[in-house]
Amino acid sequence: MSEDTRPTGDGAVDPDYSGTDRAAGAPAEPSPLAPLLPDDPDAAEIADAGSEEPEPLPAAPRGTPELARVYAALLARQGETKIEPRLDATRRACELLGDIHASAPAVTITGTNGKTSTARMVDALLTAHGLRVGRFTSPHLHRVTERISVDGAEIDEAVFVRIHDEIAPVLAMVDGELEAAGRARLTFFEALTVLAFAVFADAPVDVMVLEVGMGGEWDSTNVADAQICAFTPIGLDHMVHLGPDLSTIAATKAGILDRNVQPSPAPHPVAVIAEQEPEAAAELRSQIAVRNLTSAWAGEDYAVVERTKAVDGQLLTIRGVRGLYSDLFLPLHGAHQARNSAQALAICELFLSDGEQALDAGTVAEGFSQMDSPGRAEILRSEPTVLVDGAHNPASAAVLAETVAEAFDFREVVAVLAMFADKDPHGVLEHVSRFADRVVVTETLSERALDRQELAAAAAEWFDPDDVLVEADMNSALMRAVDLALEDGEPGVGIVVTGSLLTVAEARTLLGRKDEQ
């Protein structure tokens, strides 16, 4: 891969932001979202308050000085916007630490949309079946510790700090070897992946659920040979880095099927594939056939049979690869989450059972009841209802439009939109205009933020110009949206905040949901 096509990750908090409106240059009150540390991908801040000796979750304070020290060390590395397309550096660190990437069986999940939700669902189902699960996802909404969980809970800051300090000498050794060879040191994401593997080995866990950061073939999570390799829907995103079309993108993601451990703990992985566009499906079938692997496909081997709207979620009947499961309550909204849960169930059936026996229906139902997905069609408050969703590309925006139409009975919707400059505003606005009557555009606290005036100009092509409003920051945008929702005194107006996970993170912080999981 050439230098100009190297993959990048999502987002970074603006290191130059200091409570000043960058467009107008007018001083402002210090923002509660102003970052403590620079280059924080898709996160709003680390709070600078709390004890140096946090208590166990959920009472532990967040943002201790020790976490700030460790996070600063990680952020000093090459950021997520400059990921190195390689596996050997991560593998070297893991091997020096005792092959921690092979300390437990793994489930690896790649795709474009739905990866994090599906990973959380797999975690919930495996936990319900009595397994101790380690989960690694990205990006985080508020705290870097969110990315690593054990037993279904974000790891304690003290554990994060301790494990980092224990592996720091090995990270430094690998850094030295790379620099001696004229190569870049371990990146932020590579070091964090090693840290996650070390946490899981230390716990220890029975299974690791790994969300690919980007692509698959060269993503650092791919140093682990997964027993189950899952593909959520693949779309056109990160095209500069993954390729110009669905076929090329799918081929890169199919790299998680490669075996990178010798001898491999899972020489014959099973692929579990969600519904795909024809071009992506054809490429995945080809990649699976070349490797002579077993696969399970949505619509063929498993499916959502029935779906009924319910209070605070939906009631599902799912045909899995091993059996039929009825009356499953899923406390999440949208057809896409039903499809995600069906894929998660298929993953767990294939992971837990070597034969044809179905899983226990009661245990499956218990796992489903514990599923959640912060920042994805999440209701933050009522009167007026405020819904947040991290839709950042046309495909995810289309899913959001379908969810709003199906799950909510709004008589009117005010959208709050903030995006990154490297995304497709018209592709997102096409679908936002399907459910929103008015839109308030703003900017996130990120150096990658799309200028609000540029976003407003794009919005004016999809909305009546009088229905496009511009605010300087998320706080003022939310206040304006609430005023609009309440202006006629009648109930039934919803507020939908979307455009990126950082957009959602800022809204969650301002609306008081920052520490809830």
Automatic annotation (TrEMBL):
It holds the Pfam family Mur_ligase_M. It is an enzyme of class 6 (ligase). Keywords: ATP-binding, Ligase, Magnesium, Metal-binding, Nucleotide-binding. Transmembrane segments: none annotated. Residues 109-347 form the Mur ligase central domain. Residues 375-500 form the Mur ligase C-terminal domain. The keyword Calcium does not apply. Residues 1-63 are annotated as: Disordered. Residues 39-55 have a biased composition (Acidic residues). Its EC number is 6.3.2.17. It catalyses: (6S)-5,6,7,8-tetrahydrofolyl-(gamma-L-Glu)(n) + L-glutamate + ATP = (6S)-5,6,7,8-tetrahydrofolyl-(gamma-L-Glu)(n+1) + ADP + phosphate + H(+). Belongs to the folylpolyglutamate synthase family. This is tetrahydrofolate synthase. The lineage of its organism: Bacteria, Bacillati, Actinomycetota, Actinomycetes, Micrococcales.
